[in-house]
Amino acid sequence: MVSTVYEVKRPWYARLWILISAALVVLVVAAVVTLVVMARRARLAPPGRTIAGVAVGGLDERELRAAVESAVRARVEQPLTVRVTGTGQTFTFSPAASGVTLDVEATVRAGLAGSAAALPASLTVDSATLEAALAEHRRAAVDAVVKLAAPSPRLEAKGDTSFTATTAGVTRTAGRAGWTLDPATAAAALVPAIRSGLPEASVPSTPVAPGIKPANLAGVDQLIGTFTTHHPCCAPRVTNIHLIAKLVDGTVVAPGATFSLNDKVGERTRDKGFVPAPAIVDGELEDQLGGGVSQFSTTLFNAVWFAGLPSLEHQPHSKYISRYPPGREATLDWGNIDNVFRNDTEAPVVIRVKTTGTSVTVGLYGHTGDRRVVSETGPRNPVGAEGGFSIRVTRTVHDGDRKTGSATLRWTYEGLD
User: Fold this and answer.
1) What's the distance, CA 4 to chain centroid?
2) Among residues 102, 126, 153, 189, which one has the least CA distance to residue 356?
3) Residue 335 — very low, low, confident or very high, per pLDDT cuts 50/70/90?
4) By C-alpha distance, which of 408, 262, 383 is closest to 328?
5) Looking at residues 220-242, what average pLDDT do you find?
6) Of residues 383 and 12, which shows the higher confidence score?
7) Using alpha carbons only, what angle is made at residue 389 by residues 387 and 391, rounded to the nearest 5 degrees?
């Protein structure tokens, strides 16, 4: 029996559909393969990339994370040498101990993204901790120290003489400037250096000027006036001279202020230690509590005179006493006769006193620059029958080459002591 085989032919469009379907399958497979390859490529750091100076180019995500955890962390959390601008000073700064740490996840994400060749690390910054750590870095200023010696005798002439301001007796130990950091400003300068893995950074500073010790002696650097007078040893009046000297020694007269000897010492009383001693009262010599203090007053007056300072109130003795410069002397009487001067300079005036058994020296310290004071005493013009005389004393003040002032004292003595 013969079998008959029939060939069934598909329409042409059916065959076309099969071809199209096959092509679509191929395209889908190719697209999936392409996406997989691209995805794998996206998880690699771009070639040549560095993070905080550490080479990470071509690393996949796992390798990159390991590099960030080790080499990058070592870079950004290493101690920095911090230079303080304008001071020549440095200090070591530890980021991790100061609130600045590596943000690993943010750094890895950044390392796999973009195309930039060099990237900084990402950080976690505790601003409060960072600024507190920076605030600890400072150098305190060291104050200059001024010491004023008890004055040695330099001037005791009773007639024409002069005095020029000098540094004698002044010891000045130089101070040292300090500095501080503004924490917010310093932090803004440090964080970028840490992110870049740099071993050094610079931060701006604020200078702190040294002060003066004692603070009330700022500007005092000269012996501006001095004088010495002499007396016999061991008399009761010497006790009073030494006591008033002790009470006045170290007094500071501020710029523009006045000094009153009576106001400073107060009434001379036994309770204060003053003793009776001869004094001229109404032209006669008699014992008085505090007798002899006029010698200190005269010595102070002459120191003021040769400093070129204005004397606002003083009065010579009624009778001339030979141990004093004629016309250039000042008695003192509680509630009646005072000795007052003004500090017309821009620096404090400090009164220092030194006594011995036979002398008293007053030194005035302050600042008058290159001041020179010239004192000229005129002739004695006889007055009366008891040896009295009138006299004139002129003071000329020179600051450098300029004459800046003059004053004239006129006095008539009723007789001799």
Assistant:
1) 123
2) 153
3) very high
4) 408
5) 97
6) 383
7) 155
Q: Are strands 349-355 and 359-366 parallel, antiparallel or unpaired?
A: antiparallel
DSSP 158: S
Asked if 141 contacts 212 with a C-beta cutoff of 8 angstroms, the reply is: no
The residue written with tokens 């601003």 in the block is 127
Domain ranges for the chain: 50-137+176-208, 161-173+211-416
DSSP tag of 358? S
Mean pLDDT (whole number) for 260-281: 94
Give the model's confidence band at 280: pLDDT under 50 very low, under 70 low, under 90 confident, else very high: confident
Provide CB contacts within 8 A for 415, sequence distance 6+: 319, 320, 384, 386, 387, 388
- If you average pLDDT over residues 364-374, what whole number do you get? 98
Let me know if 100 is exposed, middle or buried by CB neighbors in 10 A (0-12, 13-18, 19+).
Answer: buried
Report how far residue 22's alpha carbon sits from residue 36's, in angstroms, rounded to the nearest whole number: 21
Cα separation, 232 vs 229, whole angstroms: 11
The answer to whether 294 and 265 are in contact (CB under 8 A) is no
Distance CA 367, CA 165 (A): 8
What is the rounded CA–CA span in Å between residue 324 and residue 158? 7
Longest dimension (CA), the chain: 194
Whether the Cβ atoms of residue 394 and residue 407 lie closer than 8 Å to each other: yes
Q: What are phi and psi of 358, to 5 degrees?
A: -135, 10
Whether 66 and 44 have beta carbons less than 8 Å apart is answered as no
Torsion (CA) 35, 36, 38, 42 in degrees, nearest 10: 130
Q: If phi over 0 gives left and psi between -120 and 50 gives alpha, with beta otherwise, what is residue 146? A: beta
For 338-358, give one letter per residue: b (16+ CB within 10 A) or e.
bbbbbbebebbbbbbbbbeee
Concatenated DSSP letters of 179-222: EE--HHHHHHHHHHHHHTT-SEEEE--EEE---EESGGGTT--E
110: phi then psi, degrees, rounded to nearest 5: -65, -35
Tens of pLDDT, residues 190-229: 999 999 999 999 999 999 999 999 999 999 999 999 999 9
Question: What sign has the CA pseudo-torsion 183, 186, 188, 194?
Answer: negative
